[in-house]
Fold this sequence. Notes:
The chain has helices at 15-25, 37-57, 70-82, 98-108, 127-133, 156-165, 237-273, 300-310, 329-333, 338-341, 355-379; strands spanning 3-4, 64-67, 89-93, 113-117, 138-142, 169-173, 192-196, 207-211, 278-279, 290-294, 312-313, 344-348. It is α/β, with parallel strands linked by helices. The protein has two domains: 3-10 and 254-379, Aspartate Aminotransferase, domain 1; 15-248, Aspartate Aminotransferase, domain 2 (3-Layer(aba) Sandwich). α2 packs parallel to α7. It starts with a strand and ends with a helix.
Amino acid sequence: MHVYFDHNATTPLDGRVLDAMLPYLREQCGNASSRHEYGTAARKALDDAREQVAALVGVQPAQVIFTSGGTEANNLFIKGAAGYLKPAQIAVSAIEHPCVAKPAQELARQGWSLRRLAVTRQGKIDLDDVDAALATATGMVSVMLANNETGVIQDVAAVGERARRAKALMHTDAVQALGKMAVDFNALNVHAMTLSAHKIYGPKGAGALVVDKRLELRPLLSGGGHERGMRSGTENVAAIVGFGAACELAAGRMAGLNRQLSALRERLERGLAGFGAVIFGAAAERVPNTSYFALPGIDGEALVIELDKAGYAVAAGAACSSASTEPSATLLAMGVAPDVARGAVRFSLGAANTAEQVDGFLVALAAIVQRLRRLTAVAV
Length: 380
């Protein structure tokens, strides 16, 4: 049986979340817009879930707009805000997920100027570069809260303070941070924040854009005016209920889970040190479950395949770009040499992982590395 070490790609559905969802997949079939008893029950379920999501990030329920996931929420902010702004500069960090980077590139083809904000060699946003960028008239800034590959936590509050002084809208993609660290919307100085259910043991297909009450956005979808006109389409009640349940569970277990995951990652990285591994962002503050490393002379994609054969699921980088053979854009932005970046493997822990599983992984890794290095030597 495989051991799962790819929780930054997605997490298994918590059984308690499934239990909360099941009534809305079976007998509770109502459309939340209907005015009969079934519809009223669905509407109440949505309202309760909105309160649960809002509570986890310290906002009012009315600030939560439900979407199909993080990608839609990021697009809703970037394209939606652009609908009310004159073309200016949009500044995004050089390590953003493609669902921020690509909408920003689309704006660049529509008269906006795209500025990529530099990061340090440890993968932290370079605040001096933020200051330099904001010397130019800027409409929007987007900087993720925790990087999906390295796990490095960004100083979004400091960037947000600078963006507000420059009269720019500030957004953060907090998908990889939620459930792994305290996330306070107001403390981060943002106008909008993106969340996703399936990274916190909730269902795929549910996410949210959390917004400042004064933020104006042009909807991506025209239709029946659901989600206060911001996201038309009949709500996925079961998935949204699951999202709310996952948020409530995350709030209760975060501190204990973080201690558990930090200890497991420390155990892993002590073992990796014996292989001469390079651990990216190791000197920066990271979310506790993530280790992104490379082993000298070992191709990352080959290592992922061999580990999978041995029963361990890890990733060569972000799940969304796993089909690409190019080195990680995040690592290149950090100044990592392309040949080193091609060796990158992401290891991301979850609630069910154990010390015995980490130890087993290190044993399997030792045998695989020895074999791959012997094959490389023979080939040379």
